[in-house]
Protein 1
Amino acid sequence: MSHSPGAPTRLLVAVAHPDDETFGCGGLLLHAAAAGTDTYVVCATRGEAGEGGTGDEPLGVVRERELHRAAAVLGVREVTLLAHRDSGMSGEPEPGTLAALDPDALAAELEAHVARVRPEVVVTLDASDGHRDHEVMRDAAVAAATAAGVPRVHLVCLARSSMVRWVEHQRAEHPDREHLSVEDVELGTPDELVTATLDVSAHRARLAEAMAEHASQDSPYDGLPESLLSDFLDSVRLRTVRDTGAAGPGRWWDHRRPGWVEARTATLVP
């Protein structure tokens, strides 16, 4: 595929679990691949603390296979699995799990990977869903990319306004979830911190194919009305946390239209 002028040559997505690359960053990976960007995924764990599983196979084996199959659908050039242990979502993290690792050691491990791939853009999740492994990976990825001098670092965001609508839907459709509150769990990134929104609706069908590869896991989008599905799947919201200005501050190439798509300026975070 030809490379769109101005699009990054290499983009690295850093995530904690198999399926994060698809449910969280799939639209972005498809968008970048369509522009001719070489895309890479580094995944910290096999997701062995997740739910589900098939037959007698260990869940981590199943999810690793799903990761590679989904990445192939997304057009990812290379997948690297660090093979740390999944921490799960509750209880004290066990020694050796991702949330129990020395943050500096994890950042150094990622920095070595970044130095090998040499991406112009590093992307990770904003962790505004409250999962501790997502938080650990976000902090380590940002630290590693900054130390390695990557020109741009972005967080894929769950916008607070979208999460408010999601909570309202959950409360209305599931009586056992009436306790849910955006304020209590700080779901979503405040909308004013979102610096760019990408229209990835052209890739919706392909994204659905990639999501189907993660058959061992329940999709977070199951049962949502189309209005919410469109909000989550047809757009990718980014928060810029580092931009050296190599291609203009706060800009992102949109291969569907000529030129640059301007984004609102955001306060950079360390």
Protein 2
Amino acid sequence: MKIHQITPLPRSEKSLRQTKGEILVSLKQIEVEFNGNKVLKNINFAIYANEIMTIVGPNGGGKSTLLKVLLKLLTPTKGKVEHKKGLKIGYVPQKLHLDHSMPITVKKFLSLKPNCKPSAIDEALKLFSIEHLAQNSMQKLSGGELQRVLLARAILDRPQLLVLDEPMQGVDISGQTELYQLLNNTRKWLNCAILMVSHDLNIVMANTDEVICVNRHICCAGTPEVITNDPHFIHFFGDQFAQNVAFYSHHHNHHHNLHGDVCSGVCQCN
């Protein structure tokens, strides 16, 4: 798949230095309780500008609930969620339910986003190499094609944070590789941070800066190299996987604690 370049946002070297490391979203002492059952407890972390963060964890561990809290779609029982003032968030849902009795073309679907300019739609179609799908029915797209359309829609207003819920669901291996290449390029072009919730760990680990493992609380967090050697991660995902995934992960000479500060310790279970 040919990757096209989007027009980068104009930023001076001075502005880039000022925004490096800027906190976009912070979660402090988050707890969520449903009918007396604690779904999330003691959740603390921050998302920084230009980083790629991935949330992983077992089914039923609270990942979807955490995402809703982070997006301010669900008010936590306790704790505080803070967004940078004026933060723009682009969201790619896990599933898109389409009415097959009412066909809609890709271009029409993109145009439904409020305050969207035709030029922005054309640029997004070109960026994700889906210009040829513009007049195709949304209902007839493959899994990979649909994900590229949803990504195109999510970046129409050039968000500072792109949030993806299980972005590789229904996409084959080669399509996953292409999509991750697009995500990395999109981060560079838009100077945006990316947050993913995913269980497709092999490729995810090769394309993320920070990983947070959630099972009602944060079990462990850090770079792929650190987290794949953590006993809590190995407990959930298996020692053999941890050994294999380390081969794919990129290398850092440091890792961060849950607040993003550089440290030299190992992951801690809260």
Protein 3
Amino acid sequence: MKKLFAALLVLALAFTGCAMAETLSVIATPSPHAEIVRLIEEDLAAAGYELELIEVTDYVTENPAVAGGDVMINFFQHIPYLDGYNASVSEDEQLAAVIPTHFEPMGIYPGTKTSLDEIAEGDAIAVPNDPTNMTRAFLLLADAGLISVPEGTTLESTVTPDDITGDLNPNGLEFYEANAELIPGLRGDVAFAVINGNNAALAGLNPNTDAAYAETAESLAGQSYVNVFAVKPENAEADFVKALESCVYTQKVYDLIVERGFVPTFTVEAAE
């Protein structure tokens, strides 16, 4: 009888534990965002949350999914991208940044040419076609000495190929605009390709070893383009956000970020 009672008690406790677990729904792009979330799944379970991870490869569905209440939190964007989204929607659709995690250097990756010294008149360079990343790409190309940008250009400016003409484009470079996630596949058609960090990782590229030129953590971009999770503003201090943060700020997540060639924006000491 005692053994039967003990067995029933174990089952009851197990059932209670399952019943108490809350679902934490996250929508994320594959690398390193979904990788990070997947890495901490067991830690979330120990904190009482059952992970529901939705992995997507675009940049357009994640924010509306959270704003519409279909998903609790997303993980795919840096702060300027989120600011741009918030400026384009009504107040009740806006989101709040939480849990800053890392910086992903944008890089100029070899296409049909390997060294920037090989640049020639009329060479084509692929750049992201969304305004935030396009301006960032042109600033990177200017930093690498390939072009100049209009005086006063900042990360908040909007710069397009039409602005890079005359003396600003001494090599007469052609700029091929494409969705950021498609650019890695275009390297065989252009001299160089400017690729976001997460898309580079998906293509097996590391900014530290494969890029002809890349942003640094000390650059203006490195200080500005910090990747974050995003939630509805009323959830910014929610328990699930606090639990997620404690699971993210750990040594294993730190190590994964570094392994991918990115720069953590939290310290291991803070994580511990």
Protein 4
Amino acid sequence: MIDITNMSNKTLVQEQYKNINNLKLRKGLHEKYGTNKVGLHKWMFDQYPFCSKMKVLELGSGRGELWEYYFENEELKGYDMDITLSDLSDGMVEHIRQSYSRERISVRKIDILDIPYENEAFDLIIANAMLYHVKDIDLALAEVRRVLKKNGVFYCSTSGENGMIQYLYRALDELGIPCNHESNISFSLQNGMQLLKKQFNKVERRDYEDALEIDVVEDYLEYIYSMASMQGLEQKYYSVLLDYFNSKKVNGYLHVPKEYGIFVAGEEYLR
């Protein structure tokens, strides 16, 4: 039986991201089959209000690939910003250090529940696809608010409650494959605004319109088996899932819904 309810959020995060290849595999599926050709990372990067001498902190940077757009842009590099990338995973921190060893950035291991900076230290804080991993979301957001300047802005992306993972859970339930899973996401597009408004006066939601149109179902199954939350999914179910998802194709494609977006939060104004 797949049982993610007995795994702590911290354990899931560590399992999910300790292997760089798993992260690359999941990113590759979205790049290959996503219907929004702008690309999620490019879309997110274009949202950020960068300006000269800005102090920036990213929490949960993963492989740090979001910043490829920054280092390829000579105009942005001319802003001379103070950038700190961070992650809870030692493996990801080391990967970022190696990837951007020639760039002027700081890289640290940081737990969002205990951010090691003084009050009002940053102009811009970014947290992508990580808040739903956090055990104490209220404490995490209070920490972000503490280290964000009064005129600073917090950008956090997350998934919704009608996206890829829910589609998968419905399939497992329909097939009778044992899977204990929680029905709600701790920080989602549906509840994120309410949670953020406990700490910030102004909150705005921006949606990224996308879906997956998959013709090679084996790629989707490889994605599924790479997920930490699916680590208990037995190999004997592979052929069952393959037949099931192939049967769901319309005009040769499996449609997998995605629900994703960004919240922009601040104390005084949003940018």
